[in-house]
Automatic annotation (TrEMBL):
<dbReference type="InterPro" id="IPR014558">
    <property type="entry name" value="UCP029720"/>
</dbReference>
<dbReference type="Pfam" id="PF03640">
    <property type="entry name" value="Lipoprotein_15"/>
</dbReference>
<feature type="signal peptide">
    <location>
        <begin position="1"/>
        <end position="24"/>
    </location>
</feature>
<keyword id="KW-0732">Signal</keyword>
<dbReference type="GO" id="GO:0043448">
    <property type="term" value="P:alkane catabolic process"/>
</dbReference>
<feature type="compositionally biased region" description="Basic and acidic residues">
    <location>
        <begin position="109"/>
        <end position="118"/>
    </location>
</feature>
<dbReference type="InterPro" id="IPR005297">
    <property type="entry name" value="Lipoprotein_repeat"/>
</dbReference>
<protein>
    <recommendedName>
        <fullName>ATP-binding protein</fullName>
    </recommendedName>
</protein>
<feature type="region of interest" description="Disordered">
    <location>
        <begin position="109"/>
        <end position="129"/>
    </location>
</feature>
Length: 129
């Protein structure tokens, strides 16, 4: 029996929806470990700031500080998962935190693998998994 292609369309659409739902249910982590440190999707090193109170849900690096230490921003609709949490910033943006510590990049790191921000002023440190 030869069925019309239109009868197959609902099954095809349902399959696409299920595949998309499965991917949405398991979001990728906002950063990954590489050579013992956390890096962003572009493999740039991530840092923590001693002035941030762990687990406070706030960042102490705003304004000019955030120009030098850009926060690892979360996309709209992001949600906390496992050791990853979200921090509401003073400017209304949302930043990723790992184990309660907000994460930042260092503006002077030029290429993946650079770690020039580690130890700056004794308060900036590479983020480690």
């Amino acid at each position: 029996m030869n069925r019309s292609p239109l009868l197959r369309l609902p099954v095809f659409c349902a399959s696409l929806w299920l595949a998309a739902a499965a991917q949405a249910a398991a979001p990728a982590a906002p950063a990954m470990a590489m050579d013992g440190v956390l890096v962003d999707g572009g493999h740039m090193s991530l840092y923590t700031f001693d002035q941030d109170a762990v687990g406070s849900g706030k960042s102490s690096c705003n304004g000019p500080c955030a120009t030098n230490w850009p926060p690892l921003l979360a996309p709209a609709g992001a949600s906390a998962q496992g050791e990853w949490s979200l921090v509401m910033r003073d400017d209304g943006t949302v930043q990723w935190a790992y184990q309660g510590r907000p994460l930042y990049r260092w503006a002077k790191d030029q290429k993946p693998g650079d770690r020039t921000g580690d130890g700056v002023k004794g308060v900036w440190h590479l983020a480690k998994p």
